[in-house]
Design goal:
Blueprint: E1 16-21, E2 25-27, E3 37-41, E4 52-56, E5 64-72, E6 79-87, E7 95-99, E8 102-106, E9 115-121, E10 130-134, E11 138-142, E12 149-160, E13 163-166, E14 173-176
Parallel strand pairs: 2-6
Antiparallel strand pairs: 1-3, 4-5, 5-6, 7-8, 8-11, 9-10, 9-12, 12-13, 12-14
């Protein structure tokens, strides 16, 4: 109803059916990451941002899990909490050096992570796998079998508030032990 002339009009307001993030998993880039909100009506039309407020961590440069809270206003009501994670990036420049019953694994150091998980096995399907962790960009693994080929891949990790966030494993490389 118009407050000046008293005329009444009717219009249909469709309820908010879709409230989500376009993507919930991201890889750390060193730049600010800002997830895109997807807010649509039951008829599939986008709801304007003037009908809701956003609080929480809507953008960040850090690794971890973050929360965004969307609160409707105006013609809409309700609250929706959404989460997204930023994981470490894939380890770069993996190099393997064979030694006598040992191998040295090295890779490019990344200051944004807390350490690295090294996975190795004697088959490319990584059955009967062994893992070890390192906080440096180089690790020597001893007590290996001579004349065997080992498959190795590495991923970065970072602990944030008691939870560990892992990046993707890099592409596996091989080394034949002396």
């Amino acid at each position: 109803t118009c407050s000046k002339c008293g005329a009444t009009t009717r219009s249909t307001i469709y309820y908010a059916k879709t409230v989500k993030l376009s993507k919930t998993k991201f890889t750390y880039t060193g730049k600010t990451i800002k997830p895109t909100l997807v807010v649509k009506t039951s008829k599939g039309k986008t709801i304007s941002s003037k009908y809701y407020t956003v609080s929480g961590t809507a953008s960040t440069k850090k690794i971890g899990k973050f929360k965004i809270t969307l609160k409707f206003k105006g013609n809409y009501s309700g609250t929706k909490t959404l989460y997204y994670t930023i994981n470490p990036k894939t380890v770069a420049s993996l190099k393997l050096k064979a030694g006598k019953k040992q191998m040295t694994v090295s890779y490019k150091k990344d200051s944004s992570v807390g350490g690295y998980e090294i996975m190795y096995a004697t088959n490319k399907s990584f059955k009967k796998v062994k893992t070890t962790k390192s906080t440096s960009a180089k690790k020597t693994i001893k007590k290996l079998t001579s004349k065997k080929t080992y498959y190795v891949k590495v991923r970065a990790y970072k602990k944030v508030s008691g939870k560990t966030y892992y990046g993707a494993y890099c592409k596996a490389k091989t080394v034949k032990i002396k």
